[in-house]
Amino acid sequence: MIPMSLKQSNHYLKSASARRAALRVTAKTSSAVEGIHAPFAKDKSADLPADAEAFTAYWKRRVAATAR
Q: Domains of the chain: which residue ranges?
């Protein structure tokens, strides 16, 4: 058997758009378990970060703004 990466073997991860959609669903459901619904409210998709760095910066700003 030839070893394959997860990205190669999982058909849901093969296209960039499918990966993006799967990541959003995963983040949304995981956040809902924690009681965080606001970032995924209706019409919030226009505010999605463009890349991983923007995503990280966005969440760092949110954490800093809600210091506990």
A: 6-65
